Amino acid sequence: MNAPPTNRAARLAGERLPEAGLGDRYDPGYRERPQRGLFGAVRDLARAFVPMRVQRLQREIDARIRELPIALNEYGYDAYGFHPGVLRQTSLFSAFLYRHYFRVRTVGVDSVPSGRVLLICNHAGQLPFDGMMLAMAMLFEADPPRLARPMAEYWVSQLPWVSVLAARSGAMVGTRENCVTMLEAGECVMAFPEGVRGMNKLYSERYKLQNFGQGFLRLALETGTPIVPVALIGSEEQQPGLANLETLARTLGMPALPITPTFPWLGPLGLLPLPVRYHFYFGEPLQFEGDPGDEDAVIERKVLIVRRAIEGLFERGISERQGVFR
User: Fold this and answer.
1) CB neighbours of 44 closer than 8 A, spacing ≥ 6?
2) The pTM is what?
3) If DSSP codes are grouped into helix, strand and coil, which group holds residue 233?
């Protein structure tokens, strides 16, 4: 009895793919079934007005998602609630920002090893565009593409709709159990040890790393995971923080309430950052050994090595860029 064709062979032969199962890769063309009648005609007409640049970008997204090594169940989800179809539907905006708004440049992405890895990056900019762009960088620039799993703050899981969308897009609440499970499964996890302290820092504190938590280092020791330090140049200027109303934020149950001058006359569009250029610098992997239950002072010395690696990448990136918007 002949074996069924692989996903790649089936695509090349133009055959219909079987339902996605464990170990299968997602095929966006298979999931998008043809529509007939009035709805199909309207959709086809609408597509005729989509700019070619946007169509090319969507095709590139489809191709990269198709190459993600994701294990899916019979319903098209992975073990953590991620669905490639949701990523496809929500990535166009992120990809447009990546290509045409932030004009992201990556240096050293080839240093990210295959298998389990922790991407440790600085955090800034009031809103998490940095995490979004780091995920896009791993999707577009890594070979093969990687799904970078963000570790979201606890309060994200309490937001209606947002919590579900985050899970379907690959994010997980940053608990120890979630991180260990993903890393032991060989996932690429990205974390921002500064947390909200970094995201809501004032403009005068740009490129000055806030205190790192120790959790990521203990996780790396527990799971034997290499750490890749990542420095993002640009996000520190995208939404300059003038003040942070901490007391009012606590009253409202928010992690922070920053005051920024970014496009204040545009109302809700004021949430858009300035069109700075992003530069991601990936350092060499750092492999640590030791007991994850060591005293804080022992772990802190290892954390300091990661901090210094990112600070070194800061110096290089700032010296090499030609301006905030270039």
Assistant:
1) none
2) 0.79
3) strand
- Which strand (E) or helix (H) includes residue 91? helix 84-96
Q: Using DSSP bridges, classify how beta strands 117-121 and 227-233 pair: parallel, antiparallel or unpaired.
A: parallel
Strand partners, 107: 281
Closest CA to 146 of 87, 223, 72, 64: 64
Domain 96-320: which CATH class?
alpha beta
**Closest Cα to residue 146, out of 96, 177, 106, 175?**
106
User: Ranked by mean pLDDT, which of 18-27, 83-92, 164-173 comes out on top?
Assistant: 83-92
Q: Could you identify the residue written with the tokens 């090349």? A: 12
3-state secondary structure of 106: strand
Q: Domain map of the chain by residue range? A: 19-82, 96-320
Handedness of CA 77, 187, 195, 312 (dihedral sign): negative
The beta strand positions in 254-294, using DSSP E, are 258-259, 279-282
Closest among 308, 309, 306 to 288, alpha carbons compared: 306
